[in-house]
Amino acid sequence: MSQLIAAGDIDVVDGDPPVPITVWRVAGVDHPFRHDPAGGLTPRTAGLLLSFYTDPGDTIVSIGDDPALAGVAGRGGRTCLCISDPADLANLDHLAGTVRLIVLRWPPPDRVGQPWTSPQRMRQLFAACRRLLARRGCTVVALADIPGETEAAYYGHSQQVIPAARHGGLGWLQHIIAVTAPIVGERITWKTTPADPATIRAATHLKIHLDLLVFEVQGFPA
């Protein structure tokens, strides 16, 4: 296990079990090798998330407006519900236990002037996600790598998000690095491909990428 961590094949945060790291190379002609954190996911990133974690006919929830996610969901026969603020999750109680995927950009939008990054509010947020999710449902937290910020931004956010999600009844399943810019020496395609340790190390140092933390519902038998 320690050799896998050292090689970059799995992720680890103090106090949590290690999880797999997957690199998605999602730059393409429909997106000019950049990611706008305010604009949501790229179409290809949205398409991969939906293909891996949902099926046609499923309901997904986007916390914050995400045109690419909504568009891909509609074309793929999914129902996408967009809410402007995490507090609006309470208005979806009629969907409890039926939502297959919740996508949350981090930090979340703040409508009332009270940040969602306090430990108590974060636990409340993930508990609300847990109530909505179906048995095999997932919550994906997208941490945008914003130009000018250091790598410490990812580690700072992840060390807040992961324990809060666990307290809310969600277990950390996977860490996806969605590369929206070319890797030197690599040919970018629309497909997700197996990543070797060198590619993972290159991707984590890119200035234009998304870290996607995938959480699954805890408490159900395997």
Q: Give the number of helices.
A: 6
The CATH architecture: 3-Layer(aba) Sandwich
Largest sheet: 8 strands, mixed
Strand line-up in the sheet with most strands: 1-2-7-8-6-5-3-4
CATH class categorisation: Alpha Beta
Radius of gyration: 17 Å
The best one-word shape is: globular
Number of DSSP E strands: 8
* Strand residues, percent: 25-35%
* Tally of domains: 1
Low-confidence stretches: 1-12, 29-38, 188-195
H/E topology pattern = HEEHEHEEHEHEHE
Helix content: 25-40%
For this entry, give a set of tags.
222 residues, alpha/beta, Rossmann fold, eight-stranded mixed beta sheet, 26% strand, globular, disordered N terminus
Structure write-up:
- Helices cover 29% and strands 26% of the residues.
- It is α/β, with parallel strands linked by helices.
- It is globular, with a radius of gyration of 17 Å.
- The model is unreliable at 1-12, 29-38 and 188-195 (pLDDT under 50).
- Helix 2 (43-53) crosses helix 3.
- It has a single domain (2-217), classed as Rossmann fold (3-Layer(aba) Sandwich), CATH 3.40.50.
- The chain has an 8-stranded mixed beta sheet, with helices on both faces.
- Strand 5, helix 4 and strand 6 form a beta-alpha-beta unit.
Topology:
Elements: H1 2-7, E1 10-11, E2 19-25, H2 43-53, E3 59-63, H3 67-75, E4 79-83, E5 99-106, H4 119-132, E6 133-144, H5 152-167, E7 170-179, H6 197-204, E8 209-217
Parallel strand pairs: 2-7, 3-4, 3-5, 5-6
Antiparallel strand pairs: 1-2, 6-8, 7-8
Helix pairs in contact: 2-3, 4-5
